[in-house]
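During the second half of the funding period, the structural biology subgroup turned its attention to how the target accommodates small molecules. The most pressing case was NAP, which had performed well in the primary screen but for which no bound structure existed. We therefore specified the complex as follows and requested a full 3D prediction, including the ligand pose.
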Amino acid sequence: MRVLVIGATGTIGKAVVELLQKDHEIIKVGSRNGDYKVDLSSQESILSLFYKVGKVDAVISTAGLANFGKFTELKDEDYSLALNNKLMGQVNLVRIGKNFLNNGGSITLTSGLLGREPIPGSTVVSMANGGLESFVRASALELQGMRVNAVSPVFVKETMEMMGMDSSTGMTAADVAKTYKAAIEGEFHGETMDVRKFS
Ligand SMILES: NC(=O)c1ccc[n+]([C@@H]2O[C@H](COP(=O)([O-])OP(=O)(O)OC[C@H]3O[C@@H](n4cnc5c(N)ncnc54)[C@H](OP(=O)(O)O)[C@@H]3O)[C@@H](O)[C@H]2O)c1
């Protein structure tokens, strides 16, 4: 398959590329690095990316920004970032990307465990994740000839280490990547795929 990975230069994205490149042709996209660059928060940028890349069999997004913060300290900008980047950036990837998918292709987005299992400080992250998972579930009812899913990662070991946290409860990015492989190679549609079920 010809697979476009947006967020390919990130912690999870690198592991997804590593796993998928054995069997598939991978086009790597980041915001600053990669074969191509895109800004998910801009519809023009997403459209321009697809015009450059052309048709693909699968699109994977391992991108999407949202900040942690105490509820009483969250600013308008924190809500805007989560809504415009993590939520609408990935929603627009489906709205635009569906026109550049070969028949039977798939688009896989990234939400996160905090959508269904929030912690103090996760309000805007949880809001974006919940929105994405509902978007996937509902849009799948109408999207024909293609599949759409969300992968929901738990905390990644490498990320926890980078943040100076105890990483013993985390999952390696390599293990998280297995769920993205299942999403593009399987028959899932309209699902939120919890990485704990696929590693
Ligand atoms: N890591 C975790 O523990 C964890 C847990 C649950 C959910 N998640 C979710 O998984 C996703 C990936 O996380 P990660 O830790 O792998 O992130 P990361 O290491 O920060 O990587 C982010 C990736 O997204 C790209 N990117 C940043 N801004 C972008 C933009 N405006 N448009 C397009 N691409 C952009 C970056 O490209 P450049 O490098 O070129 O800037 C990079 O490839 C995020 O949605 C995150 O919320 C992560």
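Two results from this model are relevant to the next phase. The helical segments are 11-20, 43-53, 76-97, 123-139, 157-162, 173-185. The chain has one domain: 2-197.
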